[in-house]
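G.,

No rush on this.
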Amino acid sequence: MNFLIVVDMQNDFIDGALGTAEAVAIVPAVKSKIENFEGRVLFTRDTHETDYLTTQEGRNLPVEHCVKGTDGWQIAPVLEALRREEAVDKPTFGSIALGQLLKAYDTYEEKIESITLIGLCTDICVISNAMIIKAFLPEVPVIVDAACCAGVTPESHENALKAMSVCQIKIENF
């Protein structure tokens, strides 16, 4: 079984509080990747509470975003329509729960052949989750499709792709 992990394709990261032109630009490619993927597709959702600004992340990035239940927290409608399973809500950049879920699937269900990550932001949540997945499943190929990712800046996107490549994560379309 192959997995596609769609990381944080939420309104606040696309065209909301922390949106970028690069994030808007990848939405059609992300939609196409999901529609054409042969395997299981899981979404993650950055999830904060109303006290976000008092958290360490909030103090370091004082832009309220992805507060649970708000429009900004929602997955972009064009992608939400393709979601078939409950999203993995994550209060931090990387999700231990996602790593555990994938490890359990690989151990108790069906061996995972590969895991591909796409989404936002390459340099924060995509890299964090790719590294966590690599730690939980070191023998499973982890792939990042660069054409379906965007970073905070184009430079930080490229830096993250290079860093992941050094950590034996395969980068496609870079």
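When you get to it, here's the other one too:
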Amino acid sequence: MLFTHTNLVTPQGVRTDCCLAIREGKIDAIAPSLLPFPEEEVRDGQTLLFLPGLVNTHCHISMTLLRGLTDHLPLSRWLGEQIFPAESRLTRQAVYAGALLGIGEMLACGVTACNDMYYFSEEVCKAVAESGIRGQIALDGFAFDPALKNRFSIDEGALRAYVEENKTRCPERLTPGLCIHAEYTSTPERCRRLIALAGELGCRVQLHLSETASEVEGCLSRHGMTPPAYFDSLGLFDLPVTAAHAVHLTTNDRLLLGEKGVFVSHCPSSNLKLGSGFADILAMEKAGICVTLGTDGASSNDALNLLGDLRLMALLQKGLHRDPACFTALQALTIASRNGALSQGRPNAGLLEEGRDADLFALDLSAENLIPAADPLQAAVYAAHPKNVALTMVAGRILYERGHFFTIDMEKVKADCRQWATTITASS
């Protein structure tokens, strides 16, 4: 596939009037003039701006079924009074439908890869494999405190089988992993067992970390340590870890996470909607933490629109530090694309360069909200909406283009999700 006369955001800056050639899932060439490309599809890209694909590093995709459930409760009550009761009625079929709906929503806003931690993760893996997106899908097995009587808790054998079976489902795009929901829903012994299993199986681990002030206070009361220090004492950070939220960190917490190479998934919309606060990601980066971007689930955001979170992230840091120059559009895009790919162990992605994976998306610069685009990168970060996404490509394959999904029967998925949502939220 060859796009002619197009525009690209590269590590060297925005390049205009270029040719972008895609071959065998890779960026084959970027050149200023037309390339010989026999027997391939040629497209006019004159109005397009290509960017590296966005990576949603923290999501519970199937929570699309719980979208709009409530908007007035703090995290602890939101979970206990609304979410956990509704989730107790989830089924495999519902999780599968909700995952396809969420993947479609993400593809339509330029997301080419995602992290997920939820229940019935094998169904999410199935949705990832069928849809063509990339996914690191983590199953939470025995990290839950038995006192919670969580019906989704499964044994070590089932966790091992989940990882082994999904390693071969579509290894080029799907990576199974494990997760610990949080310190406050787990016990030290269960965490140690999961950490040992993850190490044995070579899994990356996802978890919620220091999301609220009350979480930190509770951990200090139970263990005499902050959540980062607690999990480090269990050996978790000797594994590759992506920690979501990290809103309430001490200076020592940040230094610890930076030293251990922990990736942090910043989720600004979810943190604000639940009244949890907002993270100082510039302080994290100063401490050596590689920050990524996530939406969280569609019941605490209430969208999977990573473009919106990209803009919000940049604005929050400028406001927090009272300095409009402290955070650039390029920093924001790097966090949402390159850093996200690195957190998934994919160093060949997240940049538009020859030889890199052809995971990318394009904005239509002819849209009314993007004219004029004196600086196309700033326009992408501060002005773009999902309606401006012209196409989303993963491994050289177009999965979404101007409202059309090529791997998802979206009308059927929407109908299924409406039906499942009625059942799941009926008594919430």
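The chain has a mean pLDDT of 93. The chain is about 35% helix and 20% strand.

Enjoy the weekend,
O.
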